[in-house]
Amino acid sequence: MTPRSVSPWLVARSIAWTLLPFIVAGYVPWTFLGLSDVRIDAGDPVRWLGLVLMAAGATLLLTCIWEFAASGRGTLGPPDPPKELVVRGLYRYVRNPMYLSVATLLIGEELLVRRMPLFVYFVIWFSLVNVFVLAYEEPALRSRFGASYDEYAKSVGRWLPRPFRQ
Fold first, then answer.
1. C-beta separation of 70 from 3 below 8 A
2. Of 37, 49, 142, 153, which is the most exposed, with the fewest CB atoms less than 10 Å away?
3. DSSP letters for 60-109
4. Domains, the chain, ranges and CATH?
5. What pTM value is reported for the model?
């Protein structure tokens, strides 16, 4: 299956829904958790690793958002989900690469900030994401896509790629 062209309206909706991860991984850490106070020390490799993880997380997140639009014909927003099951790109390896991308951003930010409140924020956020995935997303995907989602879920890990699953 090849991705189809993406309409300008779908691009606009996808961009609008990026507000959610921006709030989680950008606005809250910047405004409340010390990210705005960070000064990069060129000799601190941990902070450089944080910057690399942030760039990787942002790149992976944008890749996932594009895949939702191009392959799934929808957005990351629950009211405007993909019309087709997305199993391409990063979704070939894990079922939730978008959440993992945000997690990568937050971990990178923690390496920059090195403050307990950001770490606690990450733990709470990831715990809530797990509950959301288990209680809402996976049942909704099973309902919408049936056996094709069940087969996908059997072969692709929720959080870890297949070689790391048992």
1. yes
2. 37
3. HHHHHHHHHHHTTSS-SSTTS--SS---SGGGGTBS-HHHHHHHHHHHHH
4. 8-164 (1.20.120.1630)
5. 0.92
